[in-house]
Arylsulfatase A (Neolewinella agarilytica), 443 residues
Amino acid sequence: MKGNYYILILIFASMAFAFCGETADVPEETIEQKTPNIVFIISDDQAWTDYGFMGHKQLKTPNIDKLANEGLTFVQSYVPTSLCAPSLASIVTGVYPRRHQVLGNDRMLPTDKPKDKADRRKIRAERYRPVIDHFKQLNTLPEMLKDKGYLSFQTGKWWLGNYANGGFDRGMTHGDPARGGRHGDYGLEIGRNGMDTLFNYIDYALEEEKPFFVWYAPYLPHRPHNPPDSLFQKYLPLAPSEYVAKYWAMCEWFDNTCGELIDYLDEKGQNENTLYVYVCDNGWVQEENAAGYTKNSKRSPYDYGMRTPIIYKWSGHIEPGYNSRSLASSLDIVPTVLSLLGMERPEGLDGINVLDKLALEKRETLYGEIYAHDFTTVDNSLFYQMAITSPYKIIVPNKANKPNETVQLYDIIKDPFEQKDLAADKPEIVEQLINKIEASWNQ
């Protein structure tokens, strides 16, 4: 283990990069000879601090810690929005929500007045249909991988109807509103109710002698927080409340399922030729005395909602290390995977290949955008725009939807938990970053 505490990670990271650099070059002949399996592991509602390797003193995540230690791990990294449906859509397409149009979890018009939950589901399905139709026209990673002969399988969270809408060959989510399809349906059973369906698909792909892409996005540690009792009892004396103990137990439960997946691939002799990518869709900070989340986490513009470690591991092809300096994004995942496979980058992607040292060094700014949970259009549903640099992060509220809020500015290097607003003290930085946001949106 390279460090049990976050501050130690930063020290080790700076030492490591002083000697070996931030990324590894991938020889062309290696790309031609190897076609790795690809496994995306996507956590659901977990704060960037809530891992052993990120310095959490009580929470145990040994399997993700091991992945982080053996992979190239970015710790100053973000998703472009802090809600699951748009975040997941960005992971699989490599573009901002304003481009893929999945702005929130549910699409409802101001005139919609559902009578009850059943009526709301019916209206939601009708309103969401154009969003799905638009999404089906986009270029997703599973669709791109077909050119390399990949089979693909979806499990867990998936908001865009049937798995086939994302280009997957097979999957667990049927997406039929009449049968309760909304955000994963049958797919949400993976992890919580065992791993057999996923393991069976891996066996199938191996029998077909085809490389495979797996989307493992379980409903973990997401609510309901109903962990195995043994894990709950483990954390109960360590946590400040029963609610926090349950959340911590859910995080370890998720980690256990990751270990099962990695161990299964190892048993099948596939670990050395599997590219693992780890990311969380959005953050979560557990309320101490209630079952919900704090206002500065999920659905918020703060780092507790948007920041996540991002890990890339492919043994012998990506040099391990902790990168605590470079800004990274979930939007980078698609172009990075394509680069590793020697595939051409399509037009319109918003991220970079993080294995390209020059591109990583040239990056100055990441952007974020947050919309209403029940959205209509970009213009009508926009809540916040963000620009993230080193060291500053700006949060710009949309005046139409957040009339009582003002621009906020934080030094996220000195103040990673965003406690001191510097907007009044640094008007020139505020102006500069607002101009960057406007330029980004006009591209």
Notes: The domain at 6-363 is CATH 3.40.720.10 (Alkaline Phosphatase, subunit A). The chain has one domain: 6-363.
